[in-house]
User: What shape does this take?
Amino acid sequence: MIIQDGFPQYLVQVMIKFMPKCLPSSFLEPSQSLLCHFIPLNGVRSNSLTSKRCLIQNHSASPGVLVLNAGSSSLKFSLFDRVNGDYSVAFTGTAEGLTVTQDVSARLKIKSRSHETTQSEPLSSGTHSVAMEAIACFIKSNYRGDIGAVGHRIVHGGTLFTDSCLLTPDSLLKLSALDSLAPLHNPHNMAGVRAATTAFPAALQVGVFDTSYHSTLPPHAYTYPLPRPLAAKYRRYGFHGTSHKFVVEQARKYLGKERINAISFHLGNGCSATCVKNNVSVDTSMGFTPLAGLPMGSRCGDVDPSIILKLIQDEGMKVEEVSDMLHAESGLYGICGSSDSATVEKGWSNGEPQSSLAFNIFAYHVKKCLGAYSAVLNNSVDCVIFTGGVGENSTVLHRLVCDGLIPLSHDNFSRSRDICDITADDVTTSVAKDVVMETERTRVLVVKTNEELAIAEECLKFL
Assistant: This one.
């Protein structure tokens, strides 16, 4: 097949996807590949390495899906392939120590499905492009299949991207205009897209947005009470959407219901809550940026805006200094000097005053959010979900949050399980019924989130 250079690659992929179905079965042998020669604008056919090869063994083949999560100082990846009909992780790894400058301390750590040990090797420099080159080199040397799609976690999609999409030149141009909405995240996400496009030019590039799950918020939930022109520009978006969507769906399947009302807590270094009505997000704690909402590891969460004005006017702080303080020096870290929740919880258990204060503040705000969202759902809640590193592991937090609202029993709690019901089997909700819950039984579930798998599943929609 002859295709002129400059023809959009995502359209080439769509053509290749459907072409074998239109050809006689004898046209392509099961092991045969379809070779697409890209012809430059001067009309001269190239047989060199610049000619791009699109491999489709046959239309029933299952290509691998690479998932990337590009942060400011790291590039995480997971490679999924089909085994016995289901997609599972073949390789996973992280490039750490990345910066915008050269950094010889950057390393790539990789773990395969067949080996428990983790491989680690230094990178020649600490850039996203070099890290992506190393990841691509490893995959091409150790993975026999083809990469059909690369899924990218993108934090902010604004109002333009309410669902996952192919990252075409047009969509990338629109995305670049959203950098100012998430300056700590989106530019690094885009660096991952550029690096992956270079490393895997024949693969579909798919964007999966943290904000898209919350595109269903009603106007009264996403509109800030500001003057109308400003309220139209600055609104609540919400984040951690990929995680919330995944755990809510897992909970729905676990409960065996077609639709559920749920309150989902994603609690890690970053924390957010989402109120779900009939499987749909109707409110969420994070706002215009991921700074708002619950107190977090080093982020402040909700504070009186007047405090920010006073810091600038009376304390003489610059805007950049205030921003750094709110993002990196507040939350648990600001109260007790540690952003690690396990350390803070240990200090709480030992009666250390500042750790106790920090942990109590955190649990109090989570509990207050639980009560508020219960009211939003008219006290009809099928389940409360805890996920994220803190949400999945802190039984102390579960009890502090649910005490007086929902009876709990951790007798059957197992961290090795993907989902665990920690509601006491031998206790009805009659005591809590008059306080918060009107349903016959509200379940409290610990659900392990898997954002990488969720992104991979989104990619499969385009393959």
Observations:
- DSSP finds 16 helices and 16 strands in the chain.
- The chain has a mean pLDDT of 82.
- Residues 38 and 282 are 47 Å apart (CA to CA).
